[in-house]
Amino acid sequence: MNPSAASGDLARDAFAVLLPAFATLDCHDAALPLMERGCTSVLIGETRAEYLARRMSAERLAAETEEVFSGAIAHLREASPDLIVAVDQEPIGIRRLQGLAPFLAEDEEIYSLDDATIERRALEMASVARRLGVTMFLAPILDVVTGRNDWLSGRALDASPEEIGRIGAAYISGVQAAGIAAVAKHFPGFSELARDPAMYDVALDTPRETLIANALPFRTAISAGVAGIMPGPAPVAALDPDDAACTSRAVIDLLRGEFAFGGLVVTDDLDAPATLRDRPLAEVAVTALAAGADLLLVVGGDHLHEVVDSILEAVADGRLPEDRLRDAARRVRAFAAAPRAVSRNGKY
């Protein structure tokens, strides 16, 4: 099936559930064909080197002024006025807007801040981001790390579940008061991983009772009205040993059911080895949608047309219910049209 020849509404729905990630602002030529076909989201990301360093490069800091950044986003919005523009802007760790927006805190300082100060600083940071054209932060990180975890080293808060929840809730309140959706990650929490799931196929082996106890910060975030939650990129063996959390029906059902989350479910990077597990990206995308995910984070590029083909084929042959695809697209568009309209339980 050719996306350009597929039934118009359904094909646009398949494009609408994609969140293509680009490592640079110079992504208009790659993003525009996707937006013309219905894509309404983009992640302005970072390079692999910046991800590993937990900071933006000197070259990027020198080149990306407020005018350059906001101009690039405005150029994208010419094709899609309601575009969701996401960035990684973590309380500590990866802060894509380094050099453009103030930090919430220097790393160790954050633990000494009271709720009002965190909320105020988050509001100030997010207000700058809104002026730049950003509408979504893929943050805060709420994982409770208790063992080796190179993936989250320098990114996760080193505190009790209660303290992580407190800091996260204040961050969420401030960010969302500025009109930016916060997406808490990485549900249900990855306490330790032997390797980085962005580079290796690895799974979390934490017992279920410990897992649920460590997920307390997500309950706090949901109570604070967080707009979105991102399940993690690796399998959680106690819940589903086969599929990564962000593609697992068991994990997303837990989030929707026991945790009563009604907001947007955003996948982690579907291109990660621990998520792919030696399967084609298109197959994993269908699995994520069928499991209940709404917005699929994927590396941007022409290959996404093939992913859309596979989504449409899965609908045609019954592997993916049409109503599930349409509901995911509806939820994404509802957020895109009114990012500030977040109810207390995160529903759109």
TrEMBL record:
GO molecular function (one): beta-N-acetylhexosaminidase activity
Domain Glycoside hydrolase family 3 N-terminal: 79-333
Pfam entry (one): Glyco_hydro_3
InterPro entries: GH (IPR017853), Glyco_hydro_3_N (IPR001764), Glyco_hydro_3_N_sf (IPR036962), NagZ_Beta-hexosaminidase (IPR050226)
EC number: 3.2.1.52
Broadest EC class assigned to this enzyme: hydrolase
Keywords for this protein: Glycosidase, Hydrolase
Superkingdom classification of source: Bacteria
SUPFAM superfamilies according to UniProt: (Trans)glycosidases (SSF51445)
The family this protein is said to belong to: Belongs to the glycosyl hydrolase 3 family.
Name of this chain's protein: Beta-N-acetylhexosaminidase
Species this protein is from: Rhodobium gokarnense
